[in-house]
UniProtKB/TrEMBL annotation:
Pfam families assigned to the protein according to its UniProt record, in alphabetical order: p450
Name this protein carries in UniProt: Cytochrome P450
InterPro entries in the record: Cyt_P450 (IPR001128), Cyt_P450_B (IPR002397), Cyt_P450_CS (IPR017972), Cyt_P450_sf (IPR036396)
Similarity comment: family membership: Belongs to the cytochrome P450 family.
Domain of life: Bacteria
Length: 187
C-alpha cells in the first residue's frame, strides 16, 4: 500500500503522516468552523451582514481566522544565535513562544482590534497560519473549505442559530485546537 517507485514509508513515517493529515489537516479546520459559527451567533449583526452579502464570506473567513483563537500560543521556536528583538536580546538556545493571538490583535495593524468586523479591510494580515518556512502547508485548502462551508450556511440556512447555551457547550480544552466536541444548531 505505502510504497512509491519501490520507496517505502517506514511505519513511523506512515504514522506521522496520518497524524499530520488528521491533526493538522482535519481537526484544525473542523474546530475553526465550529468556533466561527459560535462567534457569529454572538454577533447577529455580522451574521445578518453575511446573509445579505454572501460575497463577503472570503473576507469574513479571514476575520474569523484573526479573532478565533485555535490554540493558546504559537509554536515554540529556539534561537540558534543571539537575536535582538524589540530592544531585548533573545540568547542562543532560548525557547520562545510567540503569542499569535496577541499579534492578531495588534492595534498597530488592526485598528480597534477587539472589534469583530466581517468588513475589516486588513483582516487577512493575521498570523493564524504561521509565517516563514513553516507557513501552513494546508492554508489554501483550509481557506477554501471554510469559505465553501460558511457560504453554504449563510445561503442555505440564513436562520441558523446555536441551540445550546454557552454554559452547555462541550469544549475540548485538552485538544491542541481547544475545539468543541459538538455544536448543536437549529435553523
Ligand atoms: C483553520 C485551519 C488551519 C490552521 C489555523 C492552521 C495553522 C497552522 C499553523 C499556525 C502552522 C505553522 C506551525 C509552525 O509555525 O510551526 C501550520 C503548519 C502546517 N499545517 Fe496548518 N492549519 C490549518 C489547516 C491545515 C490543513 C487543512 C492542512 C493540510 C491539509 C494543514 C497542514 C499543515 C502542515 C503540514 C503544516 C506544517 C508545515 C511546515 O512545518 O512546514 N493545515 N498550520
Amino acid at each position: 500500500m505505502h510504497d512509491e517507485d519501490g520507496d517505502r514509508l517506514s511505519e513511523a513515517e506512515l504514522l506521522i503522516t496520518v497524524m499530520l493529515l488528521i491533526g493538522a489537516g482535519q481537526e484544525t479546520t473542523m474546530a475553526q468552523l465550529a468556533k466561527s459559527v459560535l462567534l457569529l451567533s454572538h454577533h447577529p449583526d455580522q451574521w445578518a451582514r453575511l446573509v445579505a452579502a454572501p460575497d463577503l464570506v472570503p473576507n469574513a473567513v479571514e476575520e474569523l481566522l484573526r479573532v478565533v483563537a485555535l490554540g493558546h500560543a504559537g509554536q515554540p521556536r529556539m534561537a540558534r544565535e543571539d537575536v535582538e528583538f524589540s530592544g531585548q536580546t533573545v540568547e542562543a538556545g532560548t525557547t520562545v513562544f510567540p503569542v499569535v493571538n496577541a499579534a492578531n490583535r495588534d492595534p498597530a495593524v488592526f485598528p480597534d482590534p477587539d472589534r469583530f468586523d466581517v468588513d475589516r479591510g486588513e483582516a487577512s494580515r493575521h498570523l493564524s497560519f504561521g509565517r516563514g518556512v513553516h507557513f501552513c502547508l494546508g492554508a489554501p485548502l483550509a481557506r477554501m473549505e471554510l469559505q465553501v462551508a460558511l457560504h453554504a450556511l449563510v445561503t442555505r440556512m440564513p436562520g441558523l442559530r446555536v441551540a445550546e447555551r454557552d454554559d452547555e457547550l462541550a469544549w475540548q480544552p485538552e485538544s491542541l485546537t481547544r475545539g468543541l466536541r459538538r455544536l448543536l444548531i437549529t435553523w
